[in-house]
# Entry
Amino acid sequence: MKNFSISKKSVSIAPDFELNQESTKNRYLTVKLLSSYLHISTSYIYKKISDNSIPHIKIDKRIIFDRELIDLWLSNNCQPFEDFPSIKSA
# Structure
């Protein structure tokens, strides 16, 4: 843990805070980083993956998440979203 002095008081920063800062820098997140980013358990994430109800990418046995798609998924009330084709104007 890192300690910082603020007004002669010592404040401890939890290790998950550092992990959360790291998760906001990366576009692609692992299950562990997503868990920290959303403050939810990894088991809940794995359940959502098995239900295919969270946007994810599988590379062999590895699972990663695009943070931009996760943010869009959250803004859509955790419902699957579909891109509608755009209509070209004449």
Q: What stands out?
A: The first strand starts at residue 2 and ends at 6. The beta strands are 2-6, 9-13, 28-29, 57-59, 62-66.
